[in-house]
Each structure stands twice: as C-alpha cells, then as structure tokens.
Amino acid sequence: MKIKTFQFAIILIFFVFKIQAQKNEYPLLLIADSLKENADAIVRLNQLDIHISSQRNMNIKTRRVITIFNKNGLSAIDAFENYNKRTYVKSIEVKVIDAFGNEIKRIKKKDFKDVSAISGSTLFSDSRYIYLDYTPTQYPFTVIYDSEVETSNTAFIPSWFPVRDFLVATEQSVLNVTYPNNLGFKKKEFNFSGFNIQKTTDTNTQLSYKATSILAQKQEPYCNPLIIFPKLMMGLESFNLEGEDGTAKSWKEFGKWYYDELLTGTTQLSPETTAKVKMFIGNETDPIKKAKLIYDYVQKKTRYVVFK
Question: Are 53 and 181 spatial neighbours (Cβ–Cβ below 8 Å)?
C-alpha cells in the first residue's frame, strides 16, 4: 500500500510540474474584479524601457499586454511604431491569446501593415509607420505586443502615460530610463496626484516609475484624456536631431537652435526657383489660379519630413 501511495505521489508531482511548465499567459481569471468595472480594456502590463547610450543614440523597448473586452476597446491596443531614415524598427511582434491564456495567433513584423505617415497626400515623406491590422474572432482576448526601436534622434524622448484613455484600466505600467550623466537629462510630472504611481529609482543615470491598479476612468465629454491623465515628459539639454548635435536648456533656446541649424537657408527662394515660378505662371492674373499653379508645383517638388 505504501508503495502504491508513493507511486501516486510521484505521478501527481510530475503532472503538477508539467502544468506549471505549460503555464498559460495572462489568463482572465487573474484580473481583479475592481479593474473590470467600466472597462472596455485592461492594460495588464505596459513597460517602456528607454536606453540613451549617447547624444546620438536611443533605444526604446516596449512590452504592452492588453486585454480587450469588446470592440470599443480595440483602439487601446496601440500596436504601431513610426520610423524614418534615422529611426529603425529593429523588431515588432504580436501574440494574441484567448481568455484562458492560450495562443490564438502570432503576428511577425512581415505581417504588419507598412504605410506612409502622410496618408492621402501627394507630398513626399520620409516618415512611415508600421501597425497591427488584426480583426478579432472572439472576445475577450489579449494582445502581447513587443517592439524595439533604435534612433539617432534624441531631441524628443517618448513621454510615459500610465493611463492613456477613458474606460481603460491599468493593472501595471512601468518606466525604466538609463542615460549618461553628462547630457542634462530632465523630467516633469503632470497630474500624478490621485493615482497609484511610485518613483522607484532616481539617480544621475537612471529613472524608474511604476503605476499599479488604476481603475477605468469614466468618459468626460469634450475632454482630452492626455490633458487630465498622468504623464511624464523627459528631455535632454544635449541632443541630436536629424544629424545635427544641439544644446538647449529651454524651449526658447531650442527654437533658436532649430532655426539657426535646420531652417536657415531653407526658407528663401533661390533666383532660379523664382524665375521658374514666374515662367509657368506666365500671364495668369487670377490670384486663385496662380495659387493653384504654385501649389501643384510645390506638391511635385517638395519633400515633407516629419520628426518623430
């Protein structure tokens, strides 16, 4: 009898280890009931890891796990990245799982949509974005989104939003930033009061925040959620933008640097261009028709560049 009992115990332990090894990811049962109230979606984890290695290099890793309860919550997925000739999407992937944590579908980078950031425009743009185009077959479901972006543009560090929209709860949101101590890193908090947000690290080379258990906020008419919800903005006094190193301690200084280094010499028409415009306008005197001719010329000849 003791031998049979021992054998049964061994078999039981084996199955326990097997179940643990096959542990499903983010099952719905693990979500607190309080977070489900009024929620179209719940952010299970939103982790933003920003590593600034130098004035000319920034790496951004994102892991976003979000459970969608209905079609109104689809807009909260936010599975996209912008890129251009100085910003490269190194990796991007989505895994879709069901309410029990079982994988439904895996979507690789090649399966994402890749389009111009200037949709419907005849102007040429260096900026593009890659985004998830997924039609769910069931609710609820969970999206696990991972991406990594590398850029030489360090003038604009992504802001951290523990909460991004109404009717979306947050289980956990994490920010980790590392940076050299000689670039003049600075930060500013907005609307943190009343939310469960803790600063976990703050040194001359590292910054970390963690937000937990933020309930879904009810919709307020005509109100932009990004104005009233918590936000952390960050910046560098020594940065790089479009291949040019810059230094600025205020918006006024940044504006002056931007004008002096990037715009000077680009806002005046050359004599050759002026002569060409006069030539194709010819004897046209109607100001509206003249404007249409010039507009058509600019559409064909101008490159429009968007900074991320």
Answer: no
Alpha-carbon torsion, ordered 290, 291, 296, 302, to 10 deg: 120
**How many whole angstroms separate alpha carbon 157 and alpha carbon 100?**
36
Distance of CA 39 to the CA centre of its chain: 21
What confidence tens digit (pLDDT) does each residue in 91-132 have? Answer: 999 999 999 999 999 999 999 999 887 755 444 457 888 999
Give backbone dihedrals phi and psi of 287, rounded to 5 degrees, phi first. -60, -35
Between CA 127 and CA 117 the distance in angstroms is 5
- Tokens at residue 184, please? 């003049």
Find how far residue 233's CA is from the centre of its chain: 14
Residue 136: left (phi > 0), alpha (psi -120 to 50), or beta? Answer: beta
Lookup result for tokens 């600063």: 199
Rounded to 5°, the CA angle 305-133-68 comes to: 120
The CATH number that domain 28-236 falls under is 2.60.40.3140
pLDDT digits (tens, 9 = 90+) for 44-89: 999 999 999 999 999 999 999 999 999 999 999 999 999 999 999 9
User: pTM of the entire structure?
Assistant: 0.81
As separate numbers, helices (DSSP H) first and strands (DSSP E) second, the chain gives: 6, 17
- Residue 116 has, within 13 A of its CA and on its CB side, a CA count of 12
d(CA 115, CA 119): 8
**Domain ranges across the chain:** 28-236, 271-304
301: left (phi over 0), alpha (psi -120 to 50) or beta: alpha
Q: In which residue are the tokens 């004897």 written?
A: 283
Q: Where would I find the H helices in 187-286?
A: 225-228, 251-258, 271-281
